[in-house]
# Entry
Amino acid sequence: MYHVRTFNKGLQAPINSSLRLTQRPAAENDILDYLNGTYTCSARITVASEISMKKEDNELVDVLIVGAGLAGVGSACQLRRRSPELSFTILESRAVSGGTWDLFRYPGIRSDSDMYTYSYGFKPWVNKSAIADGGTILEYIRETADEYDLNQHIRYNHKVVSAQWSSTDNLWTVTVTRSDTQSDNEEPLIIRCRFILSCTGYYDYEQGYTPEFAGVDDFQGEIVHPQFWPEQLDYKDKRVVVIGSGATAVTLIPSMANDTASLVMLQRSPTYIANVPAEDPWLKPLSKFMPSSWVFRSIRWKKVLLQQYIYRLSRKKPRGLRRYLLNQVREELGPDYDVDTHFTPNYNPWDQRLCAVPDGDLFTAIREKRAEVVTDHIDEFNATGIQLKSGKQLDADIIIVATGLNLKFAGGVDYSIDEQKLDFTDRFIFRGMMFSDLPNMAFTVGYTNSSWTLKADLTASYVCRLLNKMASGKYSTVTPRMIGTVDEEPLLDFDAGYVLRARDQFPKQGNRLPWKNYQNYVKDFITLRIGGLKDKELEFR
# Structure
């Protein structure tokens, strides 16, 4: 079996395939005319051995997608749909697809966005649950990959280490380590590509965020970070303290409450928590007279517009939205509950992300005394639990540190241009996906005020449009070029702790288009999906 490279008409990149020969070519670079039935191939043959060849060696593809999670799979599907002439490969550092939804295994893991906007626009969400559990989301991602026959393009256990752009060749040279699941061996590989689409997200999958707690080594029980949930953790009839009140904590509490002896959500400060219906109220009436695809689109756009309205309301009339959210909590927990202490943040709504609980399951657990909320500061850990600043002791058998995630830009890959290391913090982001003076590279980052996938879909669609224009116009590069000056702003204009800790690791955005990311799906849809590609600050060569 020998490796065959044929060239397409698009970006003139090779299509890689295998060809069984009856005899070995005389030498490398021989041109072989091969006839087998109705299939005729004229191709360059590269020979590594008489038996096989690594298809990655000296491979050249049109598009290299980094990551086989939600964004990576969705982007590959968009390439299939919109740019079928282009070759692509997906590199995934882990042994399976799914990204976040395979990595995180803690009890009750679910989406914190509704699935009508969190799902792909091209694959309707048909499950009745508007807030879905992690297993269902993972199944949806993999089902999508199967429908678009992506598995043949995904290379697992392939970790991207570095990417070098050559202005001479107009190519990326990507260094990859391929790990052997049967051993600890790692093998370096080189893949060349014309365009990189990074779909790694911005979370650090190798480590979560854990504050430094005094006396943590004195605790005699078990300490768990949800990002690395032990498969055999037994919390049945145990005293459990969950530190944190973000999306992970409000998911853990209702899912564990029926099994623990006691369950405490310990928070330093409250979070806005919205009660949302587990099933969208439009679903049943619309399903009576509309096909499922129309139902999906109708509910999806309703959700989009509602999200935009709520976000604008939070900016213009924060007190009104604050009052609405707190009244929800009071209705759920009753007039005697201390909502001011435990559920009233000291910031406005959407200064940090809202947490959603389907059908108020968190409030139900608290109301039924199966869980409680404690608002206090940790003084120190001790042998039996946690001593609080107030003097109160929380005894525990298990402490779950749901204190957030660390961020890592572009998967920690080292990028360089003509052997000069690239510092992304010096770059401005173009239309929320590309970078000033950096050719043929895009990065997928979702919205902070809406579902991640909405922006991921638009990014993939826009990249396909760019690639198609390059192919039709025989361009080799597309590069954002800033004309004039812009005022600098942080890329993630968001006050969540995990964002503030990593803000200096990310590129900048400007105060005007196309360097401003407005966090507005409707505007982005018009610009990125149906707007023209002619832009004086976008250079095709």
Q: What stands out?
A: The CA atoms of residues 276 and 358 lie 5 Å apart. The chain is about 25% helix and 25% strand. Residues 1-55 have pLDDT under 50 and may be disordered.
